[in-house]
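FAQ: What does the model actually see?

It sees only this:
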Amino acid sequence: MALTIALFSIPPNSTPNPSCPLKKDRVRFLQLLKTKPRRGVRRELTLAATMFSDNVVVSDIIAGGLSGGIALSLLKLWEQTAKRGVFDQKLNRKLVHITLGLAFMLCWPMFSSGRQGAILAAIIPGINIIKMLLLGLGIWKDDATVKSMSRFGDHRELLKGPLYYASTITLAGAIYWRNSPIAIAAVCNMCAGDGVADIFGRRFGSQKLPYNRNKSFAGSIAMVSAGFLASIGYMFYFSWFGYIEESSKLVVGFLAVSVVAALVESLPISTELDDNFTVPLAVVLVATLVF
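And it is asked to produce this:
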């Protein structure tokens, strides 16, 4: 349905009047709203505009500051809950795992379209890669961060799961970006899927898998459900901005990818190598074939 604007009536083929106080770009903007379907309007405006400034670089820097601030605020929140013992350490670690990546992906529309926006967005989790290396190697001391992200409070643990986690989000943004269902599937299955699987598995996982007694049916089912639902949610979210087109094909693809991700996470090799490495790797490989 075409959008209409009260008090303005601009014929589709009209040309701007030089004496009119409206500038030419504003006239074209109104023509766009009048003649284009809503989805087309969103897509063209998204491709053409920046959110915070007419200068693309400045806009992306502001977006980076805001998204980095949001991620840092979340991290500080979970550091405080870990320090004060609000949650069990394992639950606190999984809450970090679930929320950080998903919250950061919500910020992707703030960046400009194209490669520049993708690279600048990837810098934020990229900085976290450096932080994990410094903490994991013992060069930088931060007990609160180590406690919130590790299983047993050992700083060397940050060189595995947390490092793979930050690397996945960085590469998802830099390589695939917000117009790719592969990025959505990788981040959602790693963050929501794997995180919820651990929580449900510990609470309801009395019935173990026959090929891995450390994993349960409840955890695997929860992983498929959470990874799939999160992927669908972000499909609609990015579709609203015009980055991708929602479709039943994508829905089926996301379900297939989430099933494979849960299967890989349940294998003994994922425990040995770390599921923050095996799950995103499997998701990218399968999603490349599916989408």
